[in-house]
Amino acid sequence: SKPISDPRMQTVTLIPGDGIGPEISAAVVKIFESAKAPIRWEERNVTAIKGPGGKWMIPPDAKESMDRSKIGLKGPLKTPIAAGHPSMNLLLRKTFDLYANVRPCVSIEGYKTPYTDVDLVTIRENTEGEYSGIEHVIVDGVVQSIKLITENASRRIAEYAFEYARNNQRSSVTAVHKANIMRMSDGLFLRKCREVAENYKDIKFTEMYLDTVCLNMVQDPTQFDVLVMPNLYGDILSDLCAGLIGGLGVTPSGNIGANGVAIFESVHGTAPDIAGLDLANPTALLLSAVMMLRHMGLHEYASRIQTACFDTIRDKKVLTKDLGGNSKCSEFTSEICHRVQDLA
Amino acid sequence: LKLISAAPIRWEERNVTAIKGPGGKWMIPPDAKESMDRSKIGLKGPLKTPIAAGHPSMNLLLRKTFDLYANVRPCVSIEGYKTPYTDVDLVTIRENTEGEYSGIEHVIVDGVVQSIKLITENASRRIAEYAFEYARNNQRSSVTAVHKANIMRMSDGLFLRKCREVAENYKDIKFTEMYLDTVCLNMVQDPTQFDVLVMPNLYGDILSDLCAGLIGGLGVTPSGNIGANGVAIFESVHGTAPDIAGLDLANPTALLLSAVMMLRHMGLHEYASRIQTACFDTIRDKKVLTKDLGGNSKCSEFTSEICHRVQDLA
């Protein structure tokens, strides 16, 4: 393996997370080793700590590592109830201004769902919109919740979507909205998308109402390519699309921040009931790591690892329980490792 | 109309266009309002949405005129009309007066816009009560409140609280709660786990169309709008299809199933079942189908086929 000082080795901040997090992270590290990917993992924990002034923050060493490496891979974090601090995911989002949540959804051959040939990407604006957290009691029994849409955030997410489309050879970007009902807010979002589209004449730009997208998505998801949308719609659509390909256990996710930071993560839970029992399925975290490799320009490693993973699932001989088999996590991992080496 | 001629229904036809009343306020024609207030039951086809007509949409006018607070869409898989799903049998009940569709928006400063979502105790209680009554009256076993109260703690929290309170009066119905994103994730993997779903406006807009997609789209989906004062208007939710209008090519299934829903609402269950069976059997047998259903029959032929079956089933 390459020495740590090798300039071709790139550092990635690894946040294993809770529950099954450590074991699926170990699986990914093992598979990357087999692939001889030029990645040096820097493991950090992310817990909420109180900084000077009483403000909640992530541990300084985690922040330092991420600011330096710019790339993170993260397993699931548990959400403590009544812990007094905001969710860790929210803290990470605010610390690194993770404004875009990106989820490619591709049908996995051999993992049967009612759909085949799904190949789309949802790009969700992740900082504002309906999730601003601004709510008030107007009078007793009347509550208002405020949705904020800004020109800057809308332009930024639209630009990311078109850049993503161009960099990943996608042919179209569809803005998803309800501007017929929310004329000002979604209207502003839509206008920014249209303006940005003018600078990307090589990419086809369309617009579709959210309800129409959902109606069409479950009848024929192959008509969709890259979808860009505000926060709440993205929350819904990204989960809907994950369901089309088999659920959160096989869905990768990436969060893009300002200043070049990008954190890739599995979006399933910590599964405490099977933690430490060598039963977990590392596919979602592995595919997120593959997404990470592509983001870093390491396409050959990405393809090889993804192929090894998909071939293992397709051949159905070594599958974890959630995929319909009865193999252990370590056996599933070893199978992928062998295939990765064979594909070299 | 042809299909329900033996049913004890007398049709009173009215047009609904936007007219300006005294004081310059937009309203529906007085004779339409008078008829509906008297009959309490309406069946409505698609209305065109004029662009830049200067008046609000007709659907909005109807909603406000009759306080149509609940949009109800039963989604049942149609045997013979193949979709990736079989055995879908659920109902979405959408609060249709407030929530994200209050229409209250402001420019805060240049480039910053806010949109206000309103949730009230009264509207939430009313829709929850309707959902549980519907479940009880239609032998449904559970009601699931769909929400995002983890994110919108106050607004969706209020909605959820009202659902929980109403649930206490319906111990015979199982009550559950689920995040909207989780519902969508699960819905496309296994829709059979769902029964009656109740939710605020925007979520209902999305979910009702998602579920329509599961069973084949708006061309086969019935819909009912329940108002205050006992008014109920049943309608097909597809468009006016101007390209095939007048050519005897249309598929009347959505409007027919909405009329069947209407018959059930009126307690005319035997007629409802007979007409629905005739319709579903026609689709299942695939001999006489309109183009959108995969056949090449005319609307009139499809209709006659169902008429014969309805008579045979008598």
Task: Give an account of the 3D structure.
Chain A: Its cofactor is Mn(2+); Mg(2+). Chain A: Its main location: mitochondrion. Chain A: Pfam families: Iso_dh. Chain A: Keywords: Magnesium, Metal-binding, Mitochondrion, NAD, Oxidoreductase, Transit peptide, Tricarboxylic acid cycle. Two copies of one chain form a homodimer. With 344 residues, chain A is an alpha/beta fold. Chain A is 38% helix and 23% strand. Chain A contains ten helices and 14 strands. The first copy, chain A, has helices spanning 21-35, 60-69, 88-96, 151-167, 185-197, 210-217, 231-245, 283-295, 299-315, 329-342, and strands at 10-15, 39-43, 49-50, 56-57, 71-74, 98-106, 119-125, 129-139, 142-150, 172-177, 204-209, 226-229, 254-257, 262-265. In chain A, the strands form three sheets. In chain A, strands 2-1-5-14-13-6-7-12-10-11 form a ten-stranded mixed beta sheet, with helices on both faces. A two-stranded antiparallel sheet of chain A has the order 3-4. In chain A, strand 3 (49-50) and strand 4 (56-57) form a beta hairpin. The relative contact order of chain A is 0.17. Chains A and B meet through strand 8, strand 9, helix 5, helix 6 and helix 7 of A and strand 6, strand 7, helix 4, helix 5 and helix 6 of B.
